[in-house]
Amino acid sequence: MELAVWPVLSDPTRRAVLELLQKGPRAVGEMVDALGVTQPTASKHLRVLRDAGLVRVTGVAQRRYYSIDPAPLREIDRWLAPYRQLWNDSLDALGRQLDAVAEQQLKAVAEQSHDVP
């Protein structure tokens, strides 16, 4: 896996750009408005994302449209898969424990209601 992607994704503005691009290709001006940043700031972040291979750019007349390149994100997803399974197993165990506690509490309430005349 390309380690250079991690520092790129650590920036909150770049993650916000990727969230915007999940909905489809966007022009720089649209992202400037949506992110509340200046055009040079948006362009800087888009250049970093493009250099990392996370976004693609296409030109239509004078406008540039950016879209997500899913390949690096799939690679990250594959790398995270075993960790996700670890969390899923832990959360499943927690769910079973909470279900058991809830069942014990329901039994206790039911027993108390039978004891009351």
Q: Secondary structure elements and their pairing?
A:
Blueprint: H1 5-9, H2 12-21, E1 26-27, H3 28-35, H4 39-51, E2 55-60, E3 63-68, H5 70-115
Helix pairs in contact: 3-4
Could you please describe the fold and organization of this structure?
The structure is a single chain. With about 120 residues, this protein is mainly alpha-helical. The chain has two domains: about 60 residues, Winged helix-like DNA-binding domain superfamily/Winged helix DNA-binding domain (Arc Repressor Mutant, subunit A); about 45 residues. It is about 70% helix and about 10% strand. It contains five helices and three strands. It has a three-stranded antiparallel sheet. Strand 2 and strand 3 form a beta hairpin. Helix 3 packs across helix 4. The radius of gyration is 24 Å and the shape is elongated. The model has no long low-confidence stretch (mean pLDDT about 90).
Short description:
With 117 residues, the chain is mainly alpha-helical.
List keywords for this structure.
mainly alpha; Arc Repressor Mutant, subunit A; 2 domains; 3 strands; elongated
Radius of gyration: 24 Å
Biggest beta sheet attributes: 3 strands, antiparallel
Shape: elongated
Q: Span from first to last CA? A: 68 Å
Q: Strand pairing plus helix content: what structural class?
A: mainly alpha
How many helices does DSSP assign?
A: 5
Number of domains: 2
